[in-house]
Amino acid sequence: MDAKPISDRLSVSGQIRPEDIPEIAQAGYRAIICNRPDGEAPDQPSFEEIESAAESEGLEARYMPVVSGRVRDEDAEAFGAALKELPGPILAYCRSGTRSATLWSLAEAESRPVTDILASTKRAGYDMSGVVRRIANAGKTPTDRPDATYDVVIVGGGAAGISVASSLQARRSGLEIAIIDPADVHYYQPGWTMVGGGIFDAEDTAKTMGSLIPRGVHWVKAAVAAFEPGDNAVILDGCRVIKYQRLVVCPGLKLDWNRVEGLVETLGRNGVTSNYRYDLAPYTFELVQKMKGGRAVFTQPPMPIKCAGAPQKAMYLSADYWNRHGRLKDIDIGFYNAGGVLFGVKEYVPALMEYVEKYGIDLNFFHNLVKVDGDAKTAWFDVNKPDTETERVKVEFDMMHVCPPQTAPDFIRVSPLADEAGWVDVDQSTLRHKTYENIWALGDVMNAPNAKTAAAARKQAPVVAENIVADIKGKSPVAQYDGYGSCPLTVERGKIVLAEFGYGGKLLPSFPSWLIDGTKPSHLAWLLKEKILPPVYWKAMLRGKEWMAKPEKLETA
């Protein structure tokens, strides 16, 4: 425990543990404030454990969790009230102490000069320069004085964000559009399966963000901290304020690697890999090439996830490589799926099952990966079969491809835009927010029940653009999204089962069955994935050329 005094009444520290409480009490502290949400890291003690230890030493403990980087005005007000109510001196903690120091800085902003606050936190080792503006504004987020204002603000510069910006420009010249995204690099993520299979080079799936932002669109290179939809404002890290007439939210989703205990520590070594990361996809193929025998494990977490077929794609391409090199008989392949079916649209399952049998894959449903010990080459799964108690099983492996758990980004989940599950709450047809009429969402972050794929975003972008332009003209929504998503399942090198479907699992093929029958493996579908879709992505989709993606007219009653 390393407590750092900030004022006579408060010290802050990083994570404490129950065994630290006697030392804290001996140091004279009379109360503890926890600013770290439970479950933020797998090795983190819960607040209940801290509170129990504190009570045994006669200390008061209060739980005031704040998501990292997302200190709200009301959090600071509550913290200030706690400082007055609790007996002092007080120790506040989070992961590193930064959130606690920030809360104190904002809570004290009305009663202390800015220079005193900055000096006090600096002495304790915390830099508050990123929130100076809020401190100077009496600890409040200054949404009334924007740094910039645009006709349309787009949060997220991925496939969805750039596509919708281009589609808007194509329909309405002269719009002042801004894309907010802190990333320097834009990735063609559908290509990572092919990288992991040794077909694409990783470098070919990446381009600089600056080279892809449409000409005339402003790029705000920053992260979003919060939304103030009542004030038509987006708050950036560092407390800059961007105002908008209309807002489009499409920052993608969060790959929650930390939810699996031990996974982060072993990724990229010990035979543990994932095609869900640019830097690890080449390692997947390296492992496949080196593997001569043993056990290969492929995992899939609970839905929703980005591209539900991707965990299988990695497995089939790996198995095909081993089959072609005469190694398959010496390799035991296991698929561990937290769900209860191989694929969510039944029409594609027979073709996939043929490959499961061809490769001798052992299917394990209702198995959710919860822990990995890379050094011991061991994984643990919680088995949650219907109407049975959860059972934890241990599986040894020589190679393991992991699909991580996935959630909405933190700043979305805690925002007014989110539904109870944390996803942006939209009308699934018009993609307009259900509460805020000047806000739309598309891509992986919204809660429409479609597959989260780049192909879905390709169809969604024109719908959003069409409906925003209609709104600008004072009209009701005119375009609808039918839930289209595409999942090219790479069942072997040279053949793909081209799954295309919409809401409710309705089949929505793009081609006549005599050309490509999506329910059967096809070489033509492989050529589409390998040769045609990458240039379509870079040169058409991101540039507002809506090849086979024209929006459907909204059906009205």
From TrEMBL:
GO terms for biological process: sulfide oxidation, using sulfide:quinone oxidoreductase. Residues 4-109 form the Beta-lactamase hydrolase-like protein phosphatase-like domain. The keyword Hydrolase does not apply. The keyword Transit peptide applies. It holds the Pfam family BLH_phosphatase. Its cofactor is FAD. Residues 150-262 form the FAD/NAD(P)-binding domain. It comes from the Bacteria. Keywords: FAD, Flavoprotein, Oxidoreductase, Quinone, Transit peptide. GO terms for molecular function: FAD binding; hydrolase activity; quinone binding; sulfide:quinone oxidoreductase activity. This is Sulfide:quinone oxidoreductase. The lineage of its organism: Bacteria, Pseudomonadati, Pseudomonadota, Alphaproteobacteria, Hyphomicrobiales.
